[in-house]
Amino acid sequence: MNHLKFTLILGALAITLTACCCPCGSLVPLLGSEAEFTTGDFADVPAYPGSTQTTESDPILGVMVTALSFIAEESEWKHYTTTDSDSDVLNWYGDELPGYGWSAASGENLDVKKEGGLIFEKEEDPEVHLFILAASDIDGGDETHILIGRIRISSDE
Known about the structure:
The chain is an alpha+beta fold.
């Protein structure tokens, strides 16, 4: 992954995770509050076992999706919920996705798994990245929200 793309991705991920994990409502109007989630699964990305797909959004999810979509030429997002922990979700995707042709994105200091997300890429299409974000329900519920985004980032600098 080239240096500029890596920097943009990490910056967007930092905004995303900050919005998810802290009460910063002032960012919501700046980044947009309505996320658009499409139905159906990606052909090469399985739904997490036992999860429920939804198209519902809220301001925090909107910030997360908008922050990452901001750097993309194209993006599509899926939203699932489960009662499993976010670490269980990320571990499952980390183990499962290589079997579907995805490999963990590489770059300097790239260790987002401990921060609530994973980034994958495909060798045959280096402009396409897959983001897996898992976040506990901010309202204290027992649900974990799983956001899966397929993003195309141009290699033009």
